[in-house]
Amino acid sequence: MAYISKRDRRREKERQNATKNRRELIAEGFSRRDLIKMGLIASTGMLIPKRGLSARARDPYARIPLDDPESPPTDPWLEEMPRMQIATPVVLTPTPDRCPVPGEAPRACHQRWDELQARYGPPITYQNIAAQTSGHIVHPQLPPQTLWTYNNQIPGPLFHSFYGQRNVVRFRNNLPAIGIDGFGKGQISTHLHNGHTASESDGFPTDFYAAPLFKDHHYPNIRAGYDQFLATGGDHRETLNTLWYHDHRVDFTAQNTYKGLAGMYILFDELDSNNENAPPPQFGLPSGEFDVPIMFQDRVFDEDNGRLFFDKFNLDGILGDKFLANGKIQPFFRVRPRKYRFRWQNAGPSRFYQFFFRDKTANQDVPFTVIANDGNLLPTPVLNQFSVRIAVAERIDVVVDFAGREGHEIVLQNRLEQEDGRKPTGDILSPGETAAIGQENIKFKVNLPFTGDNSRVPAAFRPNPPLENVDAIREWRFDRSGGNWTINGEIFDEDEVRATVIQGNAERWILQNSSGGWEHPVHIHFEEFQIISRNGNAPPPVERGRKDVARLGDENIRLFMRFRDFVGKYPMHCHNTIHEDHAMMLRWDIVAP
Amino acid sequence: MKRREMLANVLSPSKSVKKEDDLRPKKHGARANYFPNFLLRTHEGKAVRFYDDLIHGKHVVINMMYADCQGLCPPITANLVKVQELLKDRIGKDIFMYSITLRPEQDTPKALNEYVKMHHVKPGWTFLTGRPADIDVIRRKLGFVDLDPALDKDTKSHIGLLRIGNELTDMWIATPGISKPKNVIKRILWLETPPDYQPENGSTQKAKPASEKKK
Question: What is the DSSP letter of A304?
């Protein structure tokens, strides 16, 4: 059978195993109906492979080869997790200006440019060059990868910015028209996720441009409520801290970000001041070496050639079987026996995580403090947590203390069981099961010497802005019909304004999900929200700050939002990037009163 | 390649060889190893191979429908008629439109031909039927699958999306069939082969069928 490929042989073996397993289970007294109920076999009688790939893998005929590679095996903990490289300012020629300069892609002129320039002075300027670059080692047992990067870095450069200092980032497109292996479209529109950014710099999905153009994104680093709190440059209670940026090219966001176009952006302020030695009222959170942003991605690599693989025919959500942290598969990270601030970010494409720190030396879970959700410090830290859930695009900042664990090995485990793009099964696996199926993301080795620790977690951060009477109520139903992803029964059309919001107004947005068994991480650009209730109940403590992503299960979520400072078009969409690319998105606009 | 195939034929039991031969693509491209090469019938009664004749090297727009479908199908068909009108002579020349029936038992070539006439579909857009089991595999390979088995059985679950692809560049996307014609056309044109396009190593490697892959 010389023409039967490795893939066919694997499938054949899988089928044989499935049949064998099914016989064993039936012999144990489970009926086929029980098994279906337990989700162990599909209605076709095939045992569901626990490989975490698409539904199409369950081809009931097994007559034709399938395009569903299982990644080649890799050993964990071979390489150290890299730290993101901090972006360095560069002089830009031509100098960025209010309206597009020569070589720049078309855009509206920057809102409030002259006013902010007069107050804060010229911007700090950076350049991020999006390009296809090769030689990226994601794991020493896989071949070097050709990826799409910003400034040849995976993840992209880490921005360290400060309130009161304007940034302009020139996103230059040097990408080929099409990425290798036929995925990735070389047109970009970069979104600073959760930035209080005017529409023309927000990376609206259809505002994309091709090489060799660039676009200057103006990140004023002012707080929401700038007009209402002019003296302080915005409402301090709207301070943002952990943001990320990624490509948002309409219909290709999943492919382009999967290929690598993502990075993080940190904002410091007078209190969260990047100095753990600073006295109160500064927060004194772990800083410098001990403030570690981590981007999580799950990926599939082709079992034949080891290259990054993207399933172009998946419409549910892509689950990878390799878990990357800062661009490396299952890295280790050496730490000192003291407190660390980890800024976790889920860069997708579709998976939900529930993270636990497992001290494998002491055989116990390590408690931690959740200090921020979606990059915003909570009104009060949530102490003594053992796990936290994080959907695509969400950020969670935690402080964990490795003191007293010298010499220990602590593994960050994702114990959330998820078998397809719908949503997690709801089951939390045991530490042993989690290890057995390889859902382990980072191994922390507490083997660096102690060098002191003045960092602390204060009893409180900043309060939330008050909830006020709203000027309008809008309901958004996230649904599925005829194989389409819809919001209020409609699909994305960039020219159709589905909501027009008056600048300065507060609104109640109600998110509903009736798509039957799907969970959608819903993201609203530009303004944050507070979750008032989930199905009438108060949200859990870790969700009681301000957020920009709402994990929407089979429920309705009531949000409070206020729209300020800039006008223009913005999207709301599901951040399961596969759903988003298949039109689960809408445009809403802010207009002047 | 030929030697290898011959060898395979010699080594395999004759019955299964015939079956495998039927399915195996005669042409080589990025998706030769992915899409089945089932025999289908067009609304004009012509026999065509799914991969060799419909997909290989082509820029395609594919949807699934059935002739007596109410609800979503008529607006989608009306939409696609407009898309065909707006793209004028490109359809059937360098962009190919296919509508595959989800109810092949009812939708004979004749029934599809009537549907074509009723909706004023112009030449260059082909309606297709075939063996139900084959159509089902094609549907799955196009990605039109619902994870809920009950919904997956319901043909109405699979009529909403258009699969747009270009086998030469191996780019594939999907977009709702109820999108405005101008939005559908935008997306079709996003998948045009760039003028300076050169398939790099990866594509040529992928382009080989399984029979050639093992060295």
Answer: T
